# Entry
Amino acid sequence: MSLDADAIVDRRRLKRQLIGWRLTAIVAFAALAYAGIATYTDLAPSNLAGDGDHVATMEIGGLILDDQDRLEALDDVAKSKSAKALIVRIDSPGGTAVGGETLYYALRNVASSKPVVALIRTIGTSGGYMTALAADRIYARETSLTGSIGVILQTAEMSGLLEKIGVKAETLASGPLKGQPSTTEPMTAEARDATQNLIDDTHQWFVKLVTDRRKLTADEVQLASDGRLFTGRQALEAKLIDELGGMADARRWLKTNHGVAGNLPMFDVDIKVSNKGLLSRLLSSSGKTLLSERLTLDGLLTLWQPAGLF
# Structure
């Protein structure tokens, strides 16, 4: 019996050690994987793109936020001597106004040294269309959705609901417009006017971009800037895009108008993700639904969002 008891004790000790080694291996593997992902963009892709002349490409998809990693990557493209052009593939309903603004100016910086082409695929609306405006040439498919030129700010007023469940919210503020609009009290006329002024001011800035970049008349820009959607065919008629087509058409235009050889290879822009940026991207990608992405937004939005989805 003593030998059996000793064997059982030894077996349990070995089992605990095995579990400990397994946990150590898992933690080590996770750390190595994280380090590998964090440094991946510092390795082969950037070296490959630097081996010779090429056409840079970048995907702008999903919600457009103020992405510092992407802005730095675009600055690298602007400075690159081997990148002879940039083709931006857009599939985005828009995002925050600041996100769209910073991306627009980063692309214009690239365009100051080399041609930039925008390809609107399934959707390029609101801030997505603002992105396209930065290009020297805009393409879309016949059934692409674009336009929705405008600004939106939404808030929920829940004082009635709170009252029903026995919650009374009180707010102390330094002025009548501080903390407005609020979810805990009805919006006053003064607060509504002040908020609308914010929206109108940003909308006027957006419309001026459209007017200047697309060379539209007053009547043409009035039609384009009321928030409506356009198909690619309608956008061509409204002068919001230059041509119906895709990648092959973009390459042909670059060759004809800028002498960019049609046989140059294309490389995706290397976005060097910081550790902080990587973590936020991993967290955001873990639940990519319209609702979860919606909850990450704050401030003024240049975004097309079908109201029935929220």
Notes: The beta strands are 54-64, 83-96, 116-125, 137-140, 145-147, 229-231, 243-244, 266-268, 301-303.
